[in-house]
Design brief:
The complex is a heterodimer of chains A (85) and B (661).
Chain A lengths: L1 H10 L2 E2 L1 H8 L3 H14 L2 E4 L24 E4 L1 H8 L1
Antiparallel strand pairs in A: 2-3
Chain B lengths: L1 E7 L5 H9 L3 E5 L6 E9 L2 E7 L11 H12 L4 E7 L3 H14 L3 E6 L1 H6 L3 E2 L1 H8 L3 E3 L8 H12 L12 H14 L8 H10 L2 H7 L3 H12 L4 H20 E2 L8 H9 L5 H23 L3 H19 L4 H19 L2 H17 L1 H15 L6 H10 L1 H6 L7 H10 L9 H11 L4 H25 L10 E3 L8 H20 L1 H14 L12 H13 L7 H9 L5 H12 L5 H10 L2 H13 L4 H11 L2 H28 L3
Parallel strand pairs in B: 1-4, 1-5, 5-6, 6-8
Antiparallel strand pairs in B: 2-3, 3-4, 7-9
Helix pairs in contact in B: 3-11, 5-11, 7-8, 7-10, 13-16, 13-22, 14-15, 15-24, 15-27, 16-23, 17-18, 18-20, 20-22, 21-28, 21-29, 22-29, 23-24, 24-27, 25-26, 26-27, 27-28, 29-31, 30-31
Classes of the chains: A alpha+beta (85), B alpha/beta (661).
Chain lengths: 85, 661
């Protein structure tokens, strides 16, 4: 199941829990949890796409960083190795 | 005293259950050596006192975080007499992953299937008997928040203390099973009270902590090398088997509403992420937002702040005259501060409206779709799709926009994203456009604003393509974006976000713009004796030196030149300076009519394009320096946008003039 999700993440254009869940016949919660495990194990990388603002956005007019994060996922080299086996 | 440990996922209601079990009889401390909170309490049942330990909420019992390590160390080394595994019934699949790990540990477990009331509301039907049988673990249904099932749970937990630990029924497959047995043989008598099954599984999973614990024993070392040599992804396979086990159980014991129906999100996404319709829909939505911004921010709310500032100017000047203030002070406060800062502040309603609509767009989840449809364009141009995310952030302010490029791991992708970000029209540039739109294009305000934003994106994409072909060659990595379900925007979060942005705008007007205006006011009065705001003043002379550069673009006046120069400190300063040098104490309508006298529609377009594209503000340049750790790139980001802006403004003006505009 995890390999199938990994494959979906590698070949799909978007990550949609609902569509992966439908194609693998598992719930969206299960998909999310499996993706979480893949991230933990280093097969997938997660990126929230927004600035961290750790060094403070200095002085510009609209300088707050309250941007709704757009979540992005990518399959790592470790993940690609699994897919190539 | 017997010990009962509570373990569960975050938000499973574990702490509520802990409170229900222990009441006020609890104390809080820290786990040794870590900053994780340790909560303990006492429970009296049938005249027996039990120690209840609330372990940190965790999804897993690996070694990935302090919480996980604390929880698992306590279960292994703390030897609790029984573990109550709190499982959220509304998210049972996810929660059972932790249960599978408890099974592997060989500990005595009782499941508190919590939030059963919410599960019923969500029409999740769980067959408790069947679930319990399949897991081999007693299960008690609870609603901790309403203290339902607490007594039964305590009773069952106490009974379980005297029973055997459940048998782990997870089938790991032949290869893993064989390896577990081999390892168990090697570890025989050396597990120091730990479950040998668990240690073997953890070794196969590559758990460094456990491996270090057993390392040094010859046979084990040889086996570890042999395990590594086999090209099996042990951890992936083991986790996979746990999920297979959970999935089988869920299929048999849990009935949930059908998730296979086509949702509204699916239907909307079919159109908005469509290969051909996606970009036109995105463009249409942005165009509508700009139109609405003018209808609401200008037609309905416009004039409010302006009338306040005018009233303030009247009150302040009346007071200053009444107390016989010196002329220079009156001029400084009325023409300099109220005229300069006020010229920026009159646009607050428009900025508020624009950010309100952009906030709604963001909160509904549409921005992820916009980024997705643009991803295709970015890739076609050889740019990384994530670049567009930083570009969206740049619409607010280029500083966080540039910082958002940190998410690009590849240096090539990051440098391109960073160098094109200043072309994204930030909020500080809006007042400049608004002055010129009000002066020349009032009936087409939305269209002009939309076109400027679009032009910024186009120039960014062209430059990105150029950079990827020249300065930074190489391949971009692949990633996919999550498309979250659409949701109704939360007015609270939209309004808070809008207020944050407006507040920053106001703060800037009161600090940086104030400082710039003060400096320029001084420069406009010196040398002493000159007519204020005249070409003979220092300000006028600086402007006159720069002006010839802009003459081919049609706005070679000292006033326009000095305003652009001031805009490098902060973009709003462009309007503040125009307010000072053209309108003095009267901003708003007076400034607009002064601009109508000094510019033509063609030079107005040329000037707006210049302000959109030319040298970014000082904060942006400083951020580029900080992010690239290079003076060279800071100088580059200051110069190359200026050249691009100048070339385009000149082209617009020269072609427009040739065509008779």
């Amino acid at each position: 199941m995890l390999k199938e999700i990994l494959k979906e993440l590698y070949t799909s254009k978007t990550y949609s829990k609902s569509s992966i869940g439908k194609s693998l016949n598992i719930s969206e919660n299960m998909v999310e949890d499996m993706v979480f495990q893949l991230i933990r194990m280093g097969y997938v990388e997660e990126d929230m796409g927004s600035p961290t603002c750790e060094s403070k956005c200095r002085g510009c007019t609209v300088s707050n960083c309250n941007v709704t994060p757009i979540r992005m996922l990518s399959v790592t080299e470790k993940g690609k190795k699994v897919l190539n086996k | 005293m017997r010990t009962i440990a509570l373990v569960g996922n975050p938000n499973s209601g574990k702490t509520t259950l802990f409170n229900a079990l222990t009441g006020s009889n609890q104390h809080v401390g820290n786990w040794p050596g870590v900053t994780v909170e340790k909560k303990e309490g006492k429970l009296r049942f049938n005249d027996q006192l039990y120690n209840v330990v609330d372990l940190p909420g965790t999804y897993s019992l690996g070694a990935y975080s302090e919480d996980e390590i604390v929880a698992r160390d306590f279960i292994i080394q703390g030897n609790p007499d029984v573990v109550i595994n709190v499982v959220d019934a509304t998210n049972i699949e996810r929660n059972l992953y932790l249960t599978t790990q408890l099974l592997e540990m060989g500990t005595k477990i009782v499941i508190a299937l919590n939030m059963m009331d919410e599960a019923k509301l969500k029409k999740i039907d769980i067959n408790l008997n069947d679930l319990s049988k399949q897991l081999g673990i007693p299960i008690i249904s609870t609603v901790a928040s309403k203290r339902k099932g607490i007594n039964e749970l305590i009773e069952k937990a106490v009974d379980t203390i005297n029973e055997d630990a459940p048998v782990n029924k997870i089938s790991y497959g032949e290869e893993i099973h064989k390896e577990i047995e081999e390892l168990k043989k090697l570890l025989e008598g050396r597990t120091e009270g730990y479950s040998s099954d668990w240690i073997a599984i953890k070794i196969l999973e590559g758990d460094e902590e456990v491996i270090n614990h057993v390392k040094g024993r010859n046979h084990v070392n040889e086996r570890l090398i042999a395990i590594k040599d086999k090209s099996v992804d042990w951890e992936l396979e083991i986790v996979n088997k746990r999920y297979d086990f959970i999935n089988n159980i869920i299929e048999k014991s849990v009935k949930k509403p059908d998730e296979t129906v086509v949702t509204l999100t699916d239907k909307i996404d079919k159109a908005v992420t469509n290969k051909y319709l996606g970009i036109p829909i995105f463009a249409l939505i942005m165009y509508m937002i700009f139109q609405l911004t003018f209808v609401i921010g200008q037609d309905l709310l416009g004039g409010i702040v302006e009338s306040w500032i005018e009233s303030l100017a009247v009150i302040v000047s009346s007071f200053l005259y009444a107390v016989n203030s010196p002329d220079w002070l009156i001029s400084f406060l009325i023409e300099g501060i109220i005229g300069g800062v006020g010229a920026v502040l009159v646009f607050v309603p428009l900025i508020m409206t624009l950010y309100f609509f952009l906030g709604i767009l963001e909160d509904t989840g549409y921005m992820a779709r916009a980024a997705y449809v643009m991803d295709g364009v970015m890739r076609a141009l050889g740019l990384h799709g994530k670049t567009f995310i930083s570009m969206i952030v740049g619409f607010g302010c280029n500083v966080p926009g540039i910082m958002a490029t940190r998410t690009l791991e590849n240096k090539k992708d990051r440098m391109i994203a960073l160098l094109i970000n200043p072309f994204m029209s930030c909020g500080a540039r809006i007042p400049i456009y608004l002055v010129f739109i009000a002066a020349f294009f009032e009936s087409n305000g939305g269209l002009v604003l939309f076109s400027l934003y679009l032009l910024g994106i186009l120039i960014a994409l062209i430059m990105g393509k150029l950079f990827s072909k020249t300065l930074f060659k190489g391949e971009s990595s692949h990633f996919i974006m999550e498309l979250p379900p659409y949701r109704l925007p939360s007015m609270r979060s939209v309004l808070r976000d809008m207020w944050d942005k407006v507040w920053d705008f106001l703060k800037r007007a009161g600090t940086v713009i104030f400082a710039v205006v003060t400096l320029l006011w001084i420069l406009s009065r010196f040398p002493l004796g000159v007519v204020p705001y005249s070409q003979e003043s220092i300000l006028g002379k600086i402007g006159s030196i720069i002006a010839p550069i802009f003459a081919p673009a049609g706005f070679g006046t000292w006033q326009a030149s000095v305003s652009l120069f001031a805009g490098i400190a902060a973009k709003e300063a462009v309007v503040a300076v125009l307010g000072m040098v053209y309108a003095g104490s009267s901003e708003g309508a007076a400034l607009i009519s002064a601009v109508q006298g000094a510019f033509t529609p063609l030079t107005a377009i040329s000037f707006m394009v210049m302000t959109l594209l030319y040298t970014p503000c000082a904060a942006t340049i400083a951020t580029v320096k900080q992010e690239t750790k290079s003076n060279k790139w800071a100088v580059f980001i200051a110069i190359y946008p200026f050249i691009i802006g100048w070339i385009l403004s000149v082209i617009i003006y020269q072609i427009g003039s040739l065509l008779g505009f």
